[in-house]
Design goal:
By secondary structure, the protein is an all-alpha fold. It has one domain. It is about 55% helix and about 0% strand. Helix 1 packs antiparallel against helix 2.
């Protein structure tokens, strides 16, 4: 059976941003949003979180990047 892929919505990105600012770890955030950890790391890069600095993630920036 084929895998179902999930695109992140703007609401998902806002949730990621809030959890990053709250200091949640990547695995916790990925579980909460319902995506694989690797998907979350790519999303963090898309949203401007450089060198693992999740506090810098921006949902707005990530949304514009797609």
């Amino acid at each position: 059976m084929a895998r179902k892929y999930k695109r992140l919505s703007y609401e998902d990105r806002k949730r990621i941003e809030a959890m990053c600012k709250a200091g949640s770890n990547a695995e916790t955030i990925a579980d909460a949003v319902g995506v694989h950890r690797g998907t979350l790391y790519r999303e963090l890069q898309r949203g401007g979180a450089e060198n693992g600095k999740r506090q810098q993630y921006s949902a707005e920036l990530a949304q514009r990047a797609i």
